[in-house]
Amino acid sequence: MGGATRRLWPANQYLGSRAASKIIEEQQDDATGDTGEGEFSLEYPNDDDDDQAEEEDHHNQHQLQQNQTHNMHDSLPSRHLSLFDLVSIGVGGTIGSGIFVLNGLIAHSYAGPATFISWIVSGIAALLSGCCYAELSGRIPSAGSSYAYAFVALGELPAFITAFMLTLEFLLSGSAVARSWGDKVVEWLRVELSVSEEFLSILEPGYGINPMACLVSIVTTLLVLWGVKESKLVTDFFTWIKVFLVIFMTVGGFILFNPANMTPLVPPEFGAAGILRGSVSSFFGYLGFDAVCCVAGEAINPERNLPLSIVITLCIVTFLYIAAAISLVGMQYYTDISPESGFPEAFKSNNVEWAAQLTAAGEVATLPVVVLISIIIQPRLQFAMANDGLIPQWFGNMRNGALFAGVLMTLFATFVPFSALDDFVSAGILVAFTITNCSLVVMRRESLNHRLEKLLALFNASSFFTCMMLSHVGHIGWIFTPLPIYIACKISRTCPRTSFGNTQLYRHDKFFTTPMVPYVPCLGMFVNYFLIAQLSMFGIGCLVIYASVAVVLYFAYGSCKKTTRGWDDRQYSQVDVKDGRIIHTANAVIT
Question: Is the per-residue pLDDT at 503 higher than 60?
Answer without folding.
Answer: no
